[in-house]
Each structure stands twice: as structure tokens, then as C-alpha cells.
Specification:
The chain has helices spanning 9-19, 26-33, 37-49, 83-86, 88-116, 120-123, 130-143, 161-173, 192-202, 246-261, 284-294, 299-306, 310-324, 329-339, and strands spanning 24-25, 53-57, 77-80, 124-128, 147-152, 177-183, 205-209, 216-219, 223-228, 238-243, 263-268, 271-274. With 342 residues, it is of the alpha+beta class.
């Protein structure tokens, strides 16, 4: 914990041990922590120099031990300086260092854009090889600070699904706006529906479409990654990383278009399911027909019960089956239960 403020491992151990008691000597702390006395003495001297501890008791005299070594240091006891006072300067130093690093980072990015982005190599970077593609993918995901946009198509190639899940969790934990569009059969992959359910609960916005033209990752609308498909299945995985340019703007626009037409996913007691658009939802009249059919009514009896013609019942039933993409009424009933129509 204190290593983030510039303390080493041994310093943190001694500092934490001293916190649990009013005062302690190097010998006391050595016995308590398992650090040798000489190391504990060195650490205490360093902490005193940095103002983190102070001497509580000075030795009155030097005594000789059995080996003829001075042992007056045994009576030197130390106490912690108030952490609110002693650690505050260290925290300020770390904040200033981080601020300087952020400034340098911004300057390097701007310098890179000014010197390289006007060339083709500065706009599009080609990445070849399983390890390199996976490395750049994780860089884009973990480097996102504001927004991450993703197309999910097919099985992972360069990055295993479990590694992708860990990166997604890291993104959501940081509060990044994370939106993803997946093809309709994406949730059919083993364990993916379970992972998607957990991710949606954590803040992921996920939608489904029938098809997508490519895989895509866009990080903060500053850079994007698109895998390169090759006819040779034995070829190494490869991808292009697109930096801020007209091409990147086109990829972002493509994502927004697919997002607008995609169906949102919702969590139900039976899993994760895609919501249907208004024209894909059954009408009240169609649901009335469905309820009676599932109750075992015949078409003719359903028509009589609802006060409509037999042809109306048949038309509503056909539309229900079209909406459910069902080939039989048994399949229609199964889809109705899964979609929560009744």
C-alpha cells in the first residue's frame, strides 16, 4: 500500500509494525517482523531522515554486550510521526510526478501526430503475429479512458475469450462507457451468454444484429483495430490499427449506424435476450389469439371466443410464427415463453 508513496517493501513492513505500538526499538521490530536487527536499524534511520519516525528515547550510556559490542542502541526507541503530516508530502510528490508524466504523455502524442500522422504509416499501422495482435488489442482496451466501441463477430482468434473477458472487466471497473454490437449467434457460444449477463450487470451496453461486416475495436475515438482476414487459414493473425483520420471517423460512423439498428439485450430470469423493435412485437389482438391457442383452443373456437373471423385468427397466427421464426406451433409456444410474450 505504501509502496505507491515511494516506500520500499522493508520500509513498509517496519512502518506498519511500528504503527501498532506507541514506541519500539530496532530489536523489538526485528523480532516482530523477522527482519535482521541491522536491517531494521537501517530502515529506522532512513525513516527518521525522511521525517516519518522520530526518536522517542535516547540511550543514556553505551553498554557492552557479551561479545564486547556496544548495545546502547537497544534503548533507542522510535515512534511514528503523525501520518497526516509525514505522508502528505510524499503524496504531493507522487501527484506531481504523475502530473508531469501525463504532460509528457500528451506532448509525445501531439508530437507524434504532427510528425507522422500525415503519412500513410502514421494513419494505418499493420500488426502481424498472434502475440503482437493480442498485445495491441489489450493496449486499446486497457488504454481507453472515456469510451470503448466493439463489434463482436465469430470466435476469437488472437485473443482467447477468457483474456477478453478480463480486459472487459477492467474497462467496466474504470467507469468507461462500453458499448458492443454482436451478431445474433454470438450468445450461442458456450459460456458467452453467462459472461454477457455478468457484463451487462456491470454496465456493458450490448446489442444484437443479424450480421456485421467486420470485427472492430475503437478506443476513445482516437484509434481503432480491425483484423485482416486472409484466404490462407494457416497465415498468422494480422490486423490494422487506425489512428485519428478520416478512415477512423468512417469506422466510428459505421459503428453508430449498426448500433442504431441493433436490438438491445435485456436480462431475464432465463438468461439474456434481445428486445424486439415495435414492428417485431405482437399486437394485443395477436397475443389474445396466442393465449387461447396455447390453452388448447382450436382456430375456430378461438375465433368464436374473440368474436373475429377464422381468417383473422389464421392471419394473426401466421404473423406470430413469422415473428418467432417458427416452423410449427410448438416452436411458437417455446419462443413465446422465452421472449416473455405472455
Amino acid at each position: 500500500m505504501l509502496q505507491a508513496l515511494g516506500l520500499g517493501p522493508a520500509e513498509e513492513i517496519v512502518y506498519t509494525a511500528l504503527m501498532a505500538q506507541p514506541t519500539a526499538s530496532a530489536h523489538d521490530l526485528a523480532r516482530q517482523t523477522g527482519i535482521v536487527v541491522a536491517e531494521a536499524s537501517r530502515v529506522l534511520a532512513d525513516l527518521e531522515t525522511r521525517g516519518l519516525v522520530s526518536v522517542a528515547t535516547e540511550p543514556d550510556r553505551e553498554e557492552s554486550g557479551s561479545a564486547g559490542q556496544p548495545t546502547g542502541s537497544r534503548s533507542v526507541r522510535y515512534r511514528l510521526a503523525p501520518p497526516s503530516v509525514a505522508l502528505a508530502p510524499l503524496l504531493v510528490e507522487q501527484r506531481n510526478a504523475l502530473h508531469q508524466a501525463e504532460s509528457a504523455f500528451s506532448m509525445l502524442i501531439e508530437q507524434y501526430r504532427n510528425t507522422a500522422v500525415h503519412s500513410a504509416s502514421g494513419v494505418v499501422e499493420v500488426v502481424v503475429g498472434m502475440e503482437q495482435v493480442a498485445h495491441r488489442f489489450h493496449q486499446l482496451q486497457r488504454g481507453a479512458q472515456r469510451e470503448l466501441l466493439v463489434f463482436l463477430v465469430g470466435a476469437p482468434v488472437a485473443v482467447p475469450r477468457e483474456e477478453t473477458g478480463m480486459s472487459e472487466s477492467s474497462v467496466l471497473d474504470r467507469g468507461v462507457d462500453f458499448r458492443a454490437v454482436a451478431v445474433k449467434d454470438y450468445l450461442d457460444t458456450p459460456n458467452v451468454a453467462r459472461d454477457a449477463r455478468a457484463a451487462i450487470k456491470a454496465g456493458l451496453e450490448l446489442r444484437l444484429v443479424d450480421s456485421l461486416p467486420l470485427k472492430l475495436v475503437v478506443s476513445d475515438r482516437e484509434r481503432a483495430m480491425v483484423p485482416l482476414d486472409t484466404a490462407d487459414s494457416d497465415a498468422e493473425p494480422s490486423a490494422i490499427v487506425v489512428h485519428r483520420s478520416g478512415l477512423l471517423a468512417a469506422l466510428v460512423h459505421l459503428f453508430e449506424m449498426e448500433w442504431a439498428r441493433a436490438r438491445p439485450l435485456r436480462i431475464t430470469t432465463t438468461g439474456v435476450h434481445a428486445e424486439q423493435t415495435v414492428d417485431q412485437q405482437p399486437t394485443k389482438g395477436e397475443l389474445d389469439v396466442l393465449a387461447l391457442l396455447l390453452a388448447g383452443f382450436s382456430d375456430r373456437r378461438t375465433a368464436s371466443q374473440l368474436g373475429v373471423s377464422l381468417r383473422t385468427v389464421e392471419r394473426r397466427t401466421r404473423r406470430l410464427m413469422d415473428l418467432a421464426r417458427a416452423d410449427s406451433r410448438l416452436q411458437l409456444g417455446w419462443h413465446a415463453a422465452r421472449a416473455g410474450w405472455l
